[in-house]
Q: What sequence folds into this?
């Protein structure tokens, strides 16, 4: 095979759709835009779900139930194998993982997963570990230190109400 023999796979290249080139082209007169109206005009776009002023379906149907995804804890996952890039005996925390590009984006913390093999002794200080990751780190003589998750005060709980209604000191 030579360069002059190469050609695109069948169906990979399409001819441009030439609009307004006469009625017999199949895309003449209204150029595939139908009759008159808002969608026939240039620059027109109607947002998804808009029904011309009628109450949209998404607002007509009742909202019921509870979705736990909104309140879940989302960790940034880091596989054990990728920790091999740190030096032997190093202390690995969230800042170190972010600096080498292993924990990118937003999350509620970092979780170490047990995928792959660890070859170095490390002190890992993150928010969560899988059971297999913890076992593999400790098998190499390293240590796993958990960071306490951020705790938010409970709203409308009996404990917070009793504290606020304590007797004034006299």
A:
């Amino acid at each position: 095979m030579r360069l002059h023999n190469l050609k695109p796979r069948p169906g990979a290249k399409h001819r441009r759709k030439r609009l307004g080139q006469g009625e017999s082209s199949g895309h003449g007169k209204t150029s595939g835009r139908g009759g008159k109206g808002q969608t026939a005009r240039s620059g027109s776009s109607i947002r998804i779900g808009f029904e011309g002023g009628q109450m949209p379906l998404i607002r007509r149907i009742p909202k019921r139930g509870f979705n736990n995804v909104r309140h879940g804890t989302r960790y940034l996952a880091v596989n054990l194998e990728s920790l091999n890039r740190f030096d032997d005996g190093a202390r690995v925390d969230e800042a170190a993982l972010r600096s080498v590009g292993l924990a990118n984006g937003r999350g509620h913390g970092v979780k170490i997963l047990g995928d792959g093999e660890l070859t170095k002794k490390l002190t890992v200080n993150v928010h969560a570990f899988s059971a297999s990751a913890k076992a593999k780190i400790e098998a190499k003589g390293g240590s796993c230190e958990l960071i306490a998750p951020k705790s938010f005060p409970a709203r409308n709980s009996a404990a917070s109400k009793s504290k606020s209604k304590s007797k004034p000191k006299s």
In short: Residues 112 and 129 are 5 Å apart (CA to CA).
